[in-house]
């Protein structure tokens, strides 16, 4: 909501409760109220709700969203751990990649949620929303909250799997990881919505998102520790926004593991800026700020669109 | 943020203007192309006003400007007493829209689609249920309210869109080609709803069509071609202006009949729809004369006289039929549309 101020309607003489219902042929006449904070909140809520209804209807999407983390955690994780056991100081590779897999699951779901905006445009529904007497920012916010909620649900599924890869079910840990993944879900949806404001074709959108998401994912350190990298990779890693979502999540997970100091040092070195250890809160703030910036751009673009 | 504050509307502002739509020198330019070239007209409250013209004439662009979806390049327009540029929200609160292409969410049920609309338009909660039932019953879809919209036929979708467009009791309902692509039966049922609507609700209906027969249902028609309004009047007056009735005769030898018409009556006739066809000012009075002076031309098997149709009207003002106008413009229009979607 950064760019807009909300106007309150002046309260004129009210027609009173039940007043607008009477008509010559007992037709319920509706008076559409002036725009107000309340009507904007209703709009945000209904756009959000629509995302949830649509997601709950899409059984295939739910199924794939369940399958993907399993594949990564158990197939890839188990397979690679046979190779990597020497370098992990006795820590299971599946445990190590767990935060990264969680981020990936959230990212892909958020991306697909944003993609629905492109469909909405193609199937015309976007128009129905665009002509409604509400701010475009409400529509964009509703969409982003919706995408974040659906992606958050995906994250919860992965959270449930924690015990299977040796991550303890600790209330503090769960809350921290949950909050972080919601933040990531929101930022990625905002990113997707920003892209969808410009890209009108599904193929182009998907291609562009893949092009952005895959390098982001591989550079982020979701699948490797971020210390002792070759310099070029270290630079790219520090520039990658996703790094700042994966790292605090890994710290949270590792804080609750009982492992040797050597293992902790090797696997969870933490992100550094010129040898300064970046605190988790700062990392989360980086993600939040980027998310807000993209949200703002998305709102501006949609407000300008005819 | 309380109940009374948000439902309050100033009644004076809502009823100040007698004209439902008032357009003044409206222009829309896209780069080099002028889609709408300065049009003016008034639509009074309670009217069914038709915009008639071939595809690409500028009808949809005009509707989009009136609906605040497209910003005019020049001129001004008031809808329900509000300026479409400076008072967009006020316009939007007072209009209902049914577009050419469906804007329903196929993955929601009919009822969910309507509920979503009610929420977006801030329809007071206590009215939503009742109003929803009314509009759905009107278009005969109440029984299907729990079905997914994806399972609906084209006609049902259009009916649902009309119901949705009415949900918030708009003062002006815009229908952009409401019957295009529908079978004749559905078309006529859509028109039944539109006329019922006018009788039941205090509403102005603004529609575009390129079907001549549908334009006849309108109280007044504006004929649009190449971005301009060529003529605006009631269907009857327009037809009267054409002045000629259409006479068709069937004979055994059409060529001989055409020659006879030319030599004896000075009338140029052509063969259309399998009969010798021509226009005369007073068809009914011409027929007796025709028979008196007809011999020895080939015997006439049947005669029909018809009042001029809007097809004839369009023809007399543009020198081309609406169908020909469309086939000639389709390519440029498509290219234009492609250009615009970039």
What do you see in this structure?
Chain A has one domain. Helices cover 68% and strands 1% of the residues of chain A. Chain A has eleven helices and two strands. In chain A, strands 1-2 form a two-stranded antiparallel ribbon. In chain A, helix 3 packs parallel to helix 6 (171-198). The radius of gyration of chain A is 23 Å and the shape is elongated. Chain B is an alpha/beta fold and 342 residues long. Helix content of chain B is 42%, strand content 25%. Chain B has a six-stranded mixed beta sheet, sandwiched between helices. A four-stranded antiparallel beta sheet of chain B has the order 2-1-4-5, covered by helices on one side.
Give descriptors for this structure.
heterodimer, A: 306 residues, mainly alpha, 11 helices, 2 strands, 1% strand, disordered N terminus, B: 342 residues, alpha/beta, Rossmann fold, Alpha-Beta Plaits, 2 domains, four-stranded antiparallel beta sheet, 14 helices, 14 strands, elongated, disordered C terminus
Which structural class best describes the helix and strand composition of chain B? alpha/beta
* Poorly predicted residue ranges of chain B: 1-17, 329-342
Query: How many strand units of chain B?
Result: 14
As residue ranges, the low-confidence spans of chain A are 1-25
Radius of gyration of chain B: 24 Å
Major beta-sheet overview of chain A: 2 strands, antiparallel
